[in-house]
TrEMBL record:
<keyword id="KW-0807">Transducer</keyword>
<feature type="repeat" description="WD">
    <location>
        <begin position="244"/>
        <end position="285"/>
    </location>
</feature>
<feature type="repeat" description="WD">
    <location>
        <begin position="337"/>
        <end position="368"/>
    </location>
</feature>
<dbReference type="InterPro" id="IPR015943">
    <property type="entry name" value="WD40/YVTN_repeat-like_dom_sf"/>
</dbReference>
<dbReference type="InterPro" id="IPR016346">
    <property type="entry name" value="G-protein_beta_1-5"/>
</dbReference>
<feature type="repeat" description="WD">
    <location>
        <begin position="200"/>
        <end position="242"/>
    </location>
</feature>
<dbReference type="Pfam" id="PF25391">
    <property type="entry name" value="WD40_Gbeta"/>
</dbReference>
<protein>
    <submittedName>
        <fullName>G protein beta subunit</fullName>
    </submittedName>
</protein>
<dbReference type="InterPro" id="IPR001680">
    <property type="entry name" value="WD40_rpt"/>
</dbReference>
<dbReference type="GO" id="GO:0005886">
    <property type="term" value="C:plasma membrane"/>
</dbReference>
<comment type="similarity">
    <text>Belongs to the WD repeat G protein beta family.</text>
</comment>
<dbReference type="GO" id="GO:0007165">
    <property type="term" value="P:signal transduction"/>
</dbReference>
<dbReference type="InterPro" id="IPR001632">
    <property type="entry name" value="WD40_G-protein_beta-like"/>
</dbReference>
<dbReference type="InterPro" id="IPR020472">
    <property type="entry name" value="WD40_PAC1"/>
</dbReference>
<dbReference type="InterPro" id="IPR019775">
    <property type="entry name" value="WD40_repeat_CS"/>
</dbReference>
<keyword id="KW-0853">WD repeat</keyword>
<feature type="repeat" description="WD">
    <location>
        <begin position="61"/>
        <end position="102"/>
    </location>
</feature>
């Protein structure tokens, strides 16, 4: 077979795949006769309301000298770890603003960080393609720096995201620019499973975000620059359980819904979306029309403990609080006088749901407290 014939067959195969993808999209749309918002309205549900003291900025954590790229809360204590382009991880006491640790990193170009479930260790990764583990109780070296306890090497691209497996300090999942996710055994420093790569059901572009299901830690979801999210089972690394389409840009953030049956996404296309892992259907789109038609990308998302609120950070400094039932913005933290001065790059909720922390390219982190420990259902 000649090269020209091979090119023709390849071109025909691409056309067939695109046609099938379009037909599948139309079929999915025909099955979605309603969404969460329309159903909630038909049931007479009213939007969540916020008073002037229901969510306020109570602390600003200052200490980084570069853009903040990632943050994570401990599962029990009121501590936060943040990663910055200044080449340091800082562990903060969220109540006192005190810096507990300032960890100098082997590579300044850090993109992600995470606390272990016990809070005894932190992990980080970035452009060095390595996930570095630090035990916070380890003795410092002669220069006062905390040494790296373990380096997880094996990715062929930058490490964009990392998360410890819930209730385990010994296993961690990373996402990478090499289009794969990896489950690591931290004790040995070896890969337990690789998700994607040479497998047909893997991502076809950089993996940018991951989220492990808190109700079933064998399941996790990944978001990619191929505009899809994929669901994985750590027991079956050879193929994705399901692929979720809908976004028209990079999926920058993924986060499981509190019940573990759904997950949210945030994308470069300026939308957040909610998907059901059981049916594979898109349940809702969260999109705010701007008067200047400039649609800022979504950088990070988090759900309130009840699932009624979705927090989304944007590149223009806005941080929307969405009512997930009615797909309505009920608050914009970016409009407050004490808001960030630059892109919201990361955000997360404390384990008890009493506070939200946002990180920004303005080098600061801000803690937002829910007044009266209000409950939203």
């Amino acid at each position: 077979m000649s090269v020209a014939e091979l090119k023709d067959r390849h071109s025909a195969a691409i056309d067939t795949v695109n046609n099938l993808r379009h037909r599948l999209k139309q079929k999915r749309l025909s099955l979605l006769d309603t969404d969460i918002c329309e159903y909630a309205r038909s049931q007479g549900r009213t939007p969540v309301t916020f008073g002037p003291t229901d969510l306020v900025c109570c602390r600003t954590l200052q200490g980084h000298t570069g853009k903040v790229y990632s943050l994570d809360w401990t599962s029990e204590k009121s501590q936060i770890v943040s990663a910055s382009q200044d080449g340091r991880l800082i562990v903060w006491n969220a109540l006192t603003r005190q810096k507990i640790h300032a960890i100098k990193l082997p590579c300044a170009w850090v993109m992600t960080c995470a606390f272990s479930p016990t809070g005894q260790s932190v992990a980080c990764g970035g452009l060095d393609s390595v996930c570095s583990i630090f035990h916070l109780n380890s003795p410092t070296d002669k220069d006062g720096n905390l040494p790296v306890s373990r380096m997880l090497s094996g990715h062929k691209g930058y490490v964009s995201s990392c998360q410890y497996v819930p209730d385990e300090d010994t296993h961690l999942i990373t996402g990478s620019g090499d289009q794969t996710c990896v489950l690591w055994d931290i004790t040995t420093g070896l890969k337990t499973s690789v998700f994607g790569g040479e497998f047909q059901s893997g991502h076809t572009a950089d993996v940018y975000s991951i989220s492990i299901n808190a109700t079933n830690s064998r399941m996790f979801v990944s978001g990619s620059c191929d505009a899809t999210a994929r669901l994985w089972d750590t027991r079956v690394a050879s193929r994705a359980v399901r692929t979720f389409h809908g976004h028209e840009g990079d999926v920058n953030a993924v986060k499981f819904f509190p019940d573990g049956n759904r997950f949210g996404t945030g994308s470069e296309d300026g939308t957040c979306r909610l998907f059901d892992i059981r049916t594979g259907h898109q349940l809702q789109v969260y999109y705010q029309q701007h008067s200047d038609n400039d649609i800022p990308p979504v950088t990070s998302i988090a759900f309130f403990a009840s699932g009624r609120l979705l927090f989304a950070g944007y590149t223009n400094g806005d941080c929307y609080v969405w009512d997930t039932l009615l797909a309505k913005v009920v608050l914009n933290l970016g409009s407050f006088q004490d808001s960030h001065d630059d892109r919201i790059s990361c955000l997360g909720l404390s384990a008890d749901g009493s506070a939200l922390c946002t990180g920004s390219w303005d080098t600061n982190l801000k803690i937002w407290a829910f007044g009266g420990h209000r409950k939203t259902t």
